[in-house]
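User: Um, what's this?
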Amino acid sequence: MTEQYNLQQALLSDYDQTWSKNGISGERIAKRLHELSKIGLTSQNGVSRVGFSPLEQQAKVLVMDWMKNAGMTVTQDGAGNVVGRIAGQYTNIPSIASGSHVDSVPEGGHFDGPLGVIAALEVVEAWKGHGIIPLKPYEVYVFTDEEGTRFSGGLTGSRAMTGVIDMNNQVTLKDEDGLTFEEVLATTGKTLEGFTKAKRTNLGIERFIEIHIEQGKKLENANLPVGIVKGIAGPSWIEFVFEGKAGHAGNTPMDDRQDALTAASELILNIEKAPSMVSATSVATVGKIQVEPNGANVIPGKVSLITDIRDINEKTRDQIVSNIVNKAQEIAISRNINVTITEKMRTPPVPIGEEMTKMLNGVFNDMKIEKQYLVSGAGHDAMMLGALIPVAMIFVRSKNGVSHNPAEWTTLTDCTISAHVLKQAIEKCMEL
């Protein structure tokens, strides 16, 4: 039963306590992950804590209490982003920062987001336990609505802060209950005016590092607890609408059809092959398709599909997009049907700079951890900051690569190792 679920107990069951050292406490990490897990806990022992919900704000309030108890100055902007700050020996200079998010997808897991927040805060706890004042200011961020469940568009808090959000479009959005963006803001005591004011003219951050679970199997397959992200892929979404001619499935000969679905199917098979022909780090997916009239005995007359194409290299990503677009046009001509192609989104990828990669290489060498380089296919808040400042990401091993699911799992030992890596990385950034 849900009321008996104890994440803390499960995490501690196989924890290697030798990693509780140098001020980093695995036991504290487990306790905090458990406390957050209770906010929005589901009957499947997952969590539903979507962005801009009272539950997301409740989780933020809990984190803010932890920040205050750790001696941090805490603020929350009009977009709901939480910032905990500890002053450094050198004042009036940009901060070194870390953090993530506490919102989830419906029926999600307990590590995607919260681990990055708790690990970032653990750095402060470690310094506090040893009476250390960092050289530069250090900030821990909890960004709003990273997952984007409410309005089908994520990274909302970090986009608001960096000023890349289109407010003319944002105010037109409605959630599945028909509530406007402004009405949803009001449910957590926020306003459109305050949301707009979250934009910073000066980011005030020198470097940012985000801890996140891998959401894949590469670290698990390599038997490694953590890895170095070398780039965050930028997505391009393209909509293809094939229009043929609907007809009776029994009375229309096979050689006299304008079947929109067979055309779309041919394109989908080509999309599956397209990435490997250009780049080893690219992916392409068709996750949304609509067939009209959608009758069992009717030849499909119209099919709409959206493909999501990603790579950490913008040039190769765009080449794949071009190849797929050309193939769609060839298929339409060969099958005597029309195709309309619309670009829905194109976001630049964020490569991790040489300086930050070199810094993380040094940390892994110091900790005697074998280096595994990874690509982030998913978007993260670090992506928004990475367009303005140097950023880095550290991935943590995910059991079976599962994420966005109650079965999402990362061992406490791996969580604690990631906090040690982050602490050393932050301290190296202080010296850069």
The domain at 235-346 is CATH 3.30.70.360 (Alpha-Beta Plaits). The chain has a mean pLDDT of 95. The radius of gyration is 24 Å.
